[in-house]
Amino acid sequence: MxxxxxxxxxxxxxxxxxxxxxxxxxxxxTWRPVFDTDPYPWVPVGGLLGIGFASHPDTGxxxxxxxxxxxxxxxxxxxxxxxxxxxxxxxxxxxxxxxxDLSCPGxxxxxxxxxxxxxxxxxxxxxxxEDGWTLEVVSPAWPNDRVLLSTDGGLPHTGPHGERxxxxxxxxxxxxxxxxxxxxxxxxxxxTSSDLSLWHRDL
Length: 203
What we know:
mainly beta, 39% strand
């Protein structure tokens, strides 16, 4: 069997070692976990297919729409409250791949609007914020993905782990579906095939 390091440059080997050595740590205090569930700051969502962001029409607060095999749900991204649920969306609206822009009909306060969904069928979320935060997905031990949050512009990370970059999520047991910031930059989301994690900050 060929040693995987034979295909990597010395720089790549060093980078992989740096990433593998970084344990999962809490996000910096700026970012508050939304779901206060011990021992993991996430909520289970079986068969999660994708997520998308919307803004509450009255308050402007971030909302997170979740599309799963069990229907659609809408969360308040600040409190984690599930504020709307559709367990049986019509087949023409149940998954975002039914339309070219990968969107699904909104529900609750965003009913009548469509929400673009990123996940199993494609699409993407913001990976940077206007004030310099960056999200990256790396896989130094594929197929397990790691989510990195940083303020140093992204790879290669020059400072010590836990100061300007943080390994905040390790997808060991589920498939990563989507990672990103809300358009406002106030919410950070990590969605896998089995759960949803959210962090929020005040601007």
